[in-house]
Every structure is written in structure tokens, then in C-alpha cells.
Amino acid sequence: MRDAGDHRGRTVALVLGGFAAGLALPDVDQVLPFLAHRSALTHSLLPALLLLLHPERGRIACGVALGIGVHLAADSFPNAMTGYATVKLPFAGSLGALWSYVWLGANALAALLLGGMMALRALPQPWGRAILAAVAAGSVLYLATTDGGWPVLAIIASLGGIGWYRRRAQ
Length: 170
What we know:
This protein has helices at 4-24, 46-52, 58-75, 96-122, 125-144, 149-169, and strands at residues 88-89, 93-94. By secondary structure, the protein is mostly helical.
């Protein structure tokens, strides 16, 4: 029989493994011949939601949602939102620049919120927070080395600074 520590360790491994997979998952459209790059199917919360249909894969879905959220946040800051950078709907083509920004931003935010809430619910507080701290460290490494990552890091740092300032002012 497994003890509680074994269960927590397995959950941490599944969430962090899902996070690593989620960072790369949106770009699987580049190797699939039937999808254009930045397909709305892979550049959305859809893959994580599909994992939630199977109850045993919820912990993996949590990590995948977090990874997809970080990836899409970086994709929200291309050099130019034209052609290759725009989101494409199957059989309909590009959403165009404005709606691509909306799609990527909304899906990034939804994925990060869903993944974060799931992480805090998956384990007792210290473990859930530890998972989110590990995801935050992985996110910084990913964002620091990918196109579009630096603006995301600047936004996060600014929001963190505002939160810290407001907390000190109270």
C-alpha cells in the first residue's frame, strides 16, 4: 500500500511532467501535416481540457495547462503579428492580427488560471505552493530563452512590483 508521501511525489512528478509537455505542445502543429502553424487547436486550452475528460489524467492536465499558458503568453509577443505568427482556424484560415492577440492572450490567461487553481487543489497547501514555485522557476527559464518571453517577464515583474508596493503601503 502506498503512503501519502508516495502519492504526493507522484502528483508532483505528473504535474511537472505535464508542465514540460505543455511548454512544447502548442508547437506540435509544426510537425503535423494537416495543421498550419499556430493552429487554434494546439494554441489554446483545448489539449488540457481534453485531458480533463479522463479522471486519472487530471494532474497531468494541471501541468499541461500551466505549460500551455506560459507558451501562449510568449506567443502573444511576436516580432510582428502577420502570416506565420497569426492563429489559424482549421478550414477557415487566419484570425488576423487583432483576433490572434485576443485568442492567444485569453487562452494564456485561462490556461494559467485553470492550472494554478488545479495545482493548489491537487495537494495540501505547502505542496501546491511548491509545485507553483517550481513552475514559476521553469517559466522564467523558458521565457528568458524564447521569442516573446522578455515582454512577459517584464509584465510579471511589473505586476509583482506593484503588488509588493501596495502590500507594503497597507
